[in-house]
Amino acid sequence: MRATRNIVILTGAGVSAESGIATFRGPGGLWEGHRVEDVCTPEALRADPALVHRFYDLRRAALAGVVPNAAHHALATLDRDWAGGLLIVTQNVDDLHERAGATRLLHIHGALGSALCAACGARAPQTGALPPGSRCDSCGSAALRPDIVFFGEIPYEMDRIVEAIGACDLFVSIGTSGAVYPAAGFVEWANDRGAATIELNLERSAGSEQFDESRLGPASELVPAWVAEILAGQ
Ligand code: OAD
Ligand code: ZN
Questions:
Q1: What separation in Å is there between the alpha carbon of 72 and the centre of ligand 1?
Q2: Which one of 12, 23, 99, 132 is most buried, counting C-beta atoms within 10 A?
Q3: Are 25 and 179 in contact (CB under 8 A)?
């Protein structure tokens, strides 16, 4: 096995669960009876913009009441102390990784703290509620929407991700059910590249058998332990 130099980490809702943000597919994952698949679509945004905006307004507002947990902090420590390549790819739209201090980070599914102009594509920081019809500062259109990658839309920064996975020696998946592509397919790309692959999750995920190793338990315990190991071997 080659030495680990470049690491790619994929995180999902499970990493923020212990901060009090409900996961999508676990208990409490429904919102007023709606499945996330019914709210996070371009069709839903067209049919009922008020509902979709409200869904994200509530999630954005909830961020004020949560703080990063030990898993976010451990990943931020890794980001600071790992001398090799590192990219944290999060599917989460919360800002807990960056609040913990991570910087080598990208949000593949967008972010609650951002608004996207459906007319010109500009993205701007967003705090507070974003009512439908809010105006874009760049082009003036009343076309701002939550900056969230909906089902059927293309995730952000795929070129950078393809490049990072294509150069990684270790791929780590943390707190994700492996239900949503393309992120669920990253482990296959990493395997094709010959990288070591490890999953840290509360339970076995949809793609568990594709990982060299699965460690099962809460992220707040598994992630600090894994980070300590990897930094000790650096
Ligand atoms: P899911 O809700 O599908 O999966 C969360 C995973 O985290 C599950 O496998 C849980 O077992 C695990 N988990 C729960 N609590 C945990 C804990 N304390 N420690 C470790 N693991 C824990 O969430 P995602 O896989 O992130 O997309 O969902 C992927 C995408 O689906 C989301 O990014 C979202 C949603 O549609 C968009 O918003 C566009
Ligand atoms: Zn615009």
A1: 15
A2: 12
A3: yes
Q: Is the peptide bond before 42 cis (omega within 30 degrees of 0)?
A: no
Sheet holding 110-117, edge to edge: 123-125, 110-117, 144-148
Closest C-alpha to ligand 1, atom 26: 12
> Which protein residue has the closest C-alpha to ligand 1 atom 7?
14
Which residues make up the CATH 3.30.1600.10 domain(s) of the chain? 22-65+110-148
CATH of domain 1-20+68-109+155-234: 3.40.50.1220
| Type of residue found at 37 | E
CATH 3.30.1600.10, domain 22-65+110-148, yes or no: yes
What residue ranges of the chain are covered by domains with CATH 3.40.50.1220? 1-20+68-109+155-234
Ligand nearest to the CA of 138: 2
Q: Decide: residue 47, CB within 10 A, 0-12 exposed, 13-18 middle, 19+ buried.
A: exposed
Among 156, 176, 211, name the best residue to mutate to test ligand 1's pocket (greatest count of ligand atoms within 8 A of Cβ). Answer: 176
72 carries an active-site annotation: no
Name the band, by pLDDT with cuts 50, 70 and 90, for residue 3. Answer: confident
Q: Per residue in 30-65, pLDDT tens?
A: 666 777 777 889 999 999 999 999 999 999 999 999
Burial class (CB in 10 A: 0-12, 13-18, 19+), 132: middle
